[in-house]
Amino acid sequence: MTDVRIRELDWYLRDHLFRQANKGRQEFEQRVLPSELVKTYLRYRNDDLDQISQLVDIVVGNLLHQLVIKKKDVDSFELSGTLKRLQCSKCYYVSILAEAEEIACLRCNSRTLDEFPKKSIKH
Ligand SMILES: [Zn+2]
Fold first, then answer.
1. First vs last C-alpha separation in the chain
2. Which of 42, 70, 76, 120 has its CA 20 to 30 A from that of 29?
3. How far is the CA of 99 from the centre of ligand 1 (A)?
4. 0.85 cut: is pTM over it?
5. Which residues lie near ion ligand 1 (Cβ < 5 Å)?
6. Whether residues 68 and 111 fall in one domain
7. How far is the CA of 31 from the centre of ligand 1 (A)?
8. Is 99 part of any domain?
9. Looking at residue 123, what is its pLDDT?
10. Does 121 reside within a domain?
11. How close is the Cα of 113 to the center of ligand 1, in Å?
12. Which tens digit of pLDDT belongs to each residue from 34-66?
């Protein structure tokens, strides 16, 4: 299990939680997340489900530790607060951060982040 694979899944899982929470979903069952990721993201379509499950276990453990999520039941969790999608003004990387976390780019650590997508003026 490499760091790169863990960091990558961390991004996809945060993205998944962000989108689901915006649809009003409150609770997430850990054991169904791997198949949800496979269904949702092309990146994982041809990957081994067992391997994704192992990555999900690691990333969920990290997210609990970082207070992004909190345990609800043995196999389920909920978000601790609202997730925000922010774009770095230096490297343009999009980070999805929880209220409990420091506002800093997950790639380059810059603290200058803008809301993503930028709010545009509607015509
Ligand atoms: Zn950056």
1. 48
2. 42
3. 18
4. yes
5. 88, 90-91, 93, 105, 107-108, 110
6. no
7. 32
8. yes
9. 59
10. no
11. 8
12. 999 999 999 999 999 999 999 999 999 999 999
